[in-house]
């Protein structure tokens, strides 16, 4: 038996009839950009996340880039302002800051949650700190009361990278989960990626920004379409980053089962948490808000564990093998003083966890990890 890490074809097959029908409708409509499908998806996704505005974009990186660029072009940030961000994230989070000539300041991660260590924020603060980019890495909500108060106290813009956590929520202890706000609605603006492998994945590239801020939404919509506020009236320095009608139609179909898909991911994760019993593995705690885009374990013998699983037909991935501050493209940008981020990069292994996974596959992963 081969257990694939993420069989996108099997996941698409769960929605095959509705995807086929929706694709056919777009093809026959004769309208392939900026039409009914993107407008409908934007409306549905904004309602789902809980923000008044949603702007669809070409991909998740562009969504992040557009937020920072719009903040610059509307005068709320200026060149070389500093943006705090976890040192343990996907490179896109950091590039979206530096590509706008803002300065990313890497803050080390926590060894238990694998996310930004709020106790280290104060130390990185300078008179030029203007924003915090909060990455809900692996699908776990990284927002805390501490982060909220820190941003308020220091007047920082709070931007969310929600690429990995569609459908996640921020719950306070004792609060009803169903009533809690969603990730993507917690700060000034949030970027979402619909890369095919994400929890809400398109059949190609797509992304979106959600925000409560009408002026920012207007600037982002214009900048994503050549800076035009009206046809051929270019108020901003713009670029082209638009979502295809076809992708919007696919996403609108898949959005309807996102909560059910995430519930299945959580069920699988709970089994891993309770039944994986290997003494040298660390499994991060589940606080109930996780949507398990990725199920990470830490193992000091990570490479042998990965080989052991591969020998039994189980595919795994590493998110991410080289920390940002040691990437060649970041040479000279950061000090090598992020011990936790470096350790996670050396020890992390991602186990298969997706809505099309069968109970037999989950059994096999648990049994094989425990026999390591
Ligand atoms: C996937 C991802 C992105 C970028 O999304 P794309 O759609 O691939 O451009 C940004 N940040 C994080 C944390 C991601 O996982």
In short:
It contains 13 helices and 11 strands. It has 372 residues and is an alpha/beta fold.
Give the radius of gyration.
Answer: 20 Å
Shape verdict: globular
Number-wise, the strands total: 11
Strand order of the largest sheet: 1-7-6-5-4-2-3
Bound molecules: pyridoxal-5'-phosphate
Work out the strand percent: 5-15%
Element pattern in H and E = HHHEHEHEHEHEEEHEEHHEHHEH
Sequence stretches where pLDDT stays below 50 over 5 or more residues: none
User: Percent helix among the residues?
Assistant: 25-40%
Mean pLDDT: 97
Distance between the termini: 18 Å
Number of helices in the DSSP assignment: 13
Describe the sheet with the most strands: 7 strands, mixed
Structural class, from helix and strand content? alpha/beta
């Amino acid at each position: 038996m081969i257990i694939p890490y993420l069989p996108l074809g099997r996941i698409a097959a769960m929605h095959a009839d509705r995807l086929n029908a929706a694709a056919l409708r777009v093809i026959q409509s004769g309208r392939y950009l900026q039409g009914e499908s993107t407008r409908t998806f934007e409306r549905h996704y904004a309602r789902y996340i809980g923000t008044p505005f949603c702007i669809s974009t070409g991909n998740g990186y562009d969504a992040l880039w557009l937020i920072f660029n719009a903040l610059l072009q509307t005068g709320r940030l200026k060149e070389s302002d500093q943006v705090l961000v976890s040192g343990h994230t996907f490179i896109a989070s950091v590039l979206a800051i530096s590509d706008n000539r803002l300065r990313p300041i890497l803050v080390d991660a926590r060894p238990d949650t694998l996310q930004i260590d709020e106790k280290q924020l104060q130390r990185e603060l300078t008179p030029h700190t203007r924003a915090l980019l909060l990455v809900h890495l692996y699908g776990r909500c990284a927002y805390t009361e501490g982060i909220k108060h820190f941003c308020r106290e220091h007047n920082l813009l709070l931007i969310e990278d929600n690429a990995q956590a569609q459908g996640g929520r921020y719950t306070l202890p004792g609060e009803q989960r169903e009533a809690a706000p969603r990730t993507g609605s917690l700060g000034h603006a949030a970027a979402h990626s619909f890369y095919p492998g994400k929890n809400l994945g398109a059949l190609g590239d797509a992304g979106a920004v959600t925000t409560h801020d009408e002026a920012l939404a207007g600037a982002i919509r214009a900048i994503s379409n050549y800076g035009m506020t009206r046809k051929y009236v270019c108020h901003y320095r713009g670029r082209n980053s638009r979502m295809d009608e076809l992708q919007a139609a696919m996403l609108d179909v898949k959005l309807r089962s996102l909560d059910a898909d995430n519930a299945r991911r959580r069920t699988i994760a709970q089994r891993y948490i309770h039944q994986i019993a290997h003494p040298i593995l660390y499994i991060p705690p589940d606080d109930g808000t996780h949507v398990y885009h990725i199920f990470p374990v830490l193992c000091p013998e990570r490479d042998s564990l990965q080989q052991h699983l591969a020998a039994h037909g189980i595919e795994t991935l590493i998110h991410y093998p080289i920390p940002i501050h040691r990437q060649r493209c970041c040479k000279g940008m950061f000090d090598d003083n992020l011990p936790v981020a470096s350790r996670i990069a050396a020890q992390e292994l991602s186990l298969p966890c997706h809505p099309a996974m069968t109970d037999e596959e989950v059994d096999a992963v648990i049994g094989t990890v425990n026999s390591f």
